[in-house]
Amino acid sequence: MSIVDLARPEIRAMQPYSSARMEASGGAILLNANESSWAPPGDDALDCNRYPDPQPPALIEALAALYGVRPAQVLVGRGSDEAIDLLVRAFCRAGEDAIAIQPPTFGMYAVSARIQNAAVLEIPLADDFSLDVDAVLAALTPAVKLVFVCTPNNPTGQKVTLAQVERLAQALAGRALLVADEAYIEFADTPSVAPLIDRYDNLAVLRTLSKAWALAGARIGALLANEEVIALLRRIIAPYPLPRPCVALALQALSAQGQVQARKHVAIVREQRERMAKALAALPGVRDVLPSQANFLAVRLDDPATVYQRLLAAGIVVRDVRRYPGLGDALRITIGTEGENDRVLAVLQDIYA
User: Fold this and answer.
1) How far is CA 180 from CA 147, 160, 230, in A?
2) What residues does the Aminotransferase class I/classII large domain cover (predicted)?
3) Looking at the chain, which residues constitute the CATH 3.90.1150.10 domain(s)?
4) Residue 97 — left, alpha, or beta (φ > 0 → left; ψ -120 to 50 → alpha)?
5) pLDDT tens across 187-196, in order?
6) Integer distance in angstroms from the first to the last C-alpha of the chain?
7) Which of 100, 140, 181, 353 is the most exposed place for a label (fewest CB within 10 A)?
8) Helix count (H) and strand count (E) of the chain?
9) Domain 268-351: what homologous superfamily?
10) Tell me: the pLDDT tens digits for 44-68?
11) Nearest-angstrom CA–CA distance, 172 and 160
C-alpha cells in the first residue's frame, strides 16, 4: 500500500484549487490574475504587485540541494507550523483519528490536532528525557495516523538517534506516518534522517530556516517527504503561501556567501552552548543543566520564578517552561552572542552572590 492510502479519502479525491499562477506562466502582459499593473512604492524590483510562485522553483531547488533530496520531495510553507497543520488536516479525520507525541515537546503538534478535533496520544519521554521507542510502539492504537518525534527535542534539547528513527519508521510501515521535526538539527552532532526518505515512504522530515539560518521573521519552513505525500499536501496548501520578499531573503541566505555566514554562526552557538552549560552548572542555585544538541539550554533552578523575574527586570527575556511535564523547575535559555551570554551570567551571579 501507499502511505497516502492512510490519508483522508476526501482529501485524496478532492479537486484542488487552481490559481491563476498555476494555470499559466510566462508572457509579457499579465492580465489573468486581477493583479495591479503598477508596482508599489519601494518595491525594489520584487514585483510585489504580482502573486508569487506557489512553490518557488529556485527556492525548492536550493532547499533540495541543501537537504540532499529531490525537488519533488520538498514542500515549502510558512514555517514548520504550516506543514504540521497540513499533515494533521490531510491524515486525521475529525473525531476519529489521532496523533502521537512524546511530552515534553513542541506544543504545535497538539494544537494542530485539537483544531482538527483529532485525539492526542501522549507517551512521555523517559526520566532523562530520552525517547523510549518501545514505549511509543506499545502505546500506539490503530487510530494514530501521525507520530511526531522532535529531534533535537524542544524544550529539552536531547537528540533522537538515526537508529531510533529508522526503527520507528520500520515498525510504523503501513500504519502511520512518522514525522521527524529537525528544526534544530544544524546545531546537533547527529546527522539528519532525510536520507531515509527514499527507504521509508512513511517518513517525513520538518526543516526550517528560522533557527540556524536566521530567518525567523521570514517564516520559511520545509517538509521533506515521499513525492506522493508532497503532492497530496499541495492539494490543500494555500495558493500563495510565501511572499516574494521572504523568498528573496531565503535565496540570499542559501547563497554560497550566506551558507558560509550561517555555518560560522552555528559554530559560535555550539561553542557558546558548551561554555554556558559549564558556567551555569557551577552556580549555587542551579540544580541541573540538561544536555542539549540545540541552540538553547534547559536549566533546572531552586527558584525559577524569582530568576525569571530578575532576568526580566534586567532586560533579559528567557522562556518559562515550568508548565511542561517534568520541567516544573526549569527555564529555557537561548544561546545568544558572547556578550548576551555574559550578561545572563552576570545577572545570575548577582542573584546568587
Assistant:
1) 8, 9, 15
2) 47-347
3) 268-351
4) beta
5) 999 999 999 9
6) 64
7) 353
8) 12, 11
9) Aspartate Aminotransferase, domain 1 (3.90.1150.10)
10) 889 999 999 999 999 999 999 999 9
11) 17
Cα gap 140→91, rounded to integer Å: 16
26-40, 117-131, 151-165: segment of lowest average pLDDT: 26-40
pLDDT at 335: 98
Q: Where in the chain is the domain with CATH 3.40.640.10?
A: 3-254
Q: Is domain 3-254 classified as CATH 2.40.30.10?
A: no
Continuous H helices in the chain: 9-13, 20-23, 57-67, 79-91, 108-115, 133-139, 162-172, 227-234, 244-253, 256-281, 304-313, 338-351
Q: Residues for the chain: how many in total?
A: 353
DSSP 112-131: HHHHTT-EEEE-PPPTTS--
Q: Distance between CA 46 and CA 79 in Å, rounded?
A: 21
What per-residue confidence (pLDDT) applies to 177? 98
277 pLDDT exceeds 90?
Answer: yes
Q: How far apart are CA 224 and CA 196, in angstroms?
A: 11
**Tens-place pLDDT, residues 10-45:** 999 998 888 888 887 778 898 889 999 999 998 888
